[in-house]
Amino acid sequence: MSYSKIGVVGLGIMGAGIVEVFARSGYEVIGVAESEAAVEIGRGNLAKSLSRAVSKGKLSQNESDVITGRVTFGPEFKLLSDCDLVVEAAPEILSLKTSIFSQLDQVVKPSGILATNTSSLSVTQIAQATNRSGQVVGLHFFNPAPVQKFVEVIGTKISDPDVVASVTALGAALGKRTAQVTDKPGFIVNKLLLRYLNHAVQILDAGSASKEQLDAAMRELSNYPMGPCELLDLVGIDTCVEIMKTIHADTGLDIDIPAQGMLELVADGKMGRKTGSGFYDYSQSHEAPTDSDELIKAQVHLDLVTAYLGDCIAMQATGYASREDIDAGMKLGCGLPEGPFEVIERVGLSQVRKNQADLANRTGISSYQPLSL
Ligand code: CAA
What we know:
The chain is of the alpha/beta class. 51% of the residues lie in helices and 10% in strands.
């Protein structure tokens, strides 16, 4: 299988970012969205990202023009007919994605591979909307797609192994570290990341800390590039709610019920950066949140990190992903300075298990208990 012409359906922040990734790597790209207005937004998203790189001296204006020249935008699916691969990056609504895939199946040439950038929905169900389910995989990028150097490749039980292998090789050709995973809600990174983000909002909802304390705690005490509320705003709070609903439907655990604070913001139309406000207001420039209450910051930092490390241990112990893939996913997909297993090695497994037991006992939430050995 060889790839020269790539289609992208959906031109929001993720879709436009994926267009940029392929165009920067020299591929001819067709970007399609549902209306002329959505196409214009996508074109603007690409232009903004490239002009940011030009203004930082990372790209010359000429290079930026060459990249832009590789991309054709339009609102019609038929533009995608001779693409070797089409990546769908529409909102996280299963019925929308299955409808897109059944249309793609009609218009894309028979040898074309179809990939979904879904964050947590079933790739298997999406594949079943086509008559080429063996040629359907998940190809999951991280936001901002041009920056984060990790992609998850999701093969289903019905995916052709050669297709999974060739899409994985393509991911590597884009300069990304790849991990092959099976089709489980949240895959590697979102299962871990979204639970952590939801946990932070549960702490906020309980009134135990402010959003500034939560964000400052993770930035200052773990050197995360962003705190949880800032990251929810970047990813999109509506998207995060949808991911948590899928994870909750799978686990049935109370800790996976989308936190009230997220539901309220979504109901208010405050989805994060893309709508101009979420936990924070983006009408002015956003500064890193600060707070001087060191005790509260230390407590929420310990609780968030403890629960997260426990989840990483459980994910590895159940054989879903290797510690190398988990560490790479969290570092290269989310810009974290250390992988969770590097943290566990530094802190000591027995200390992490003790912290897990303390958290479970203090909160009365048995899901936080360490795995029995
Ligand atoms: N598009 C393109 N490039 C961007 C960008 C964007 N939206 N935002 C930032 N960048 C680039 C900048 O140009 C800059 O590039 P250089 O280093 O080449 O100059 C680099 O990223 C750093 O940017 P800044 O200095 O402006 O800002 P920063 O240092 O605060 O970094 C950040 C911004 C890269 C977003 C960083 O804060 C970060 O990594 N945050 C964590 C993001 C994260 O966790 N993403 C994963 C979310 S989960 C997901 O996406 C999956 C899902 O399905 C929900």
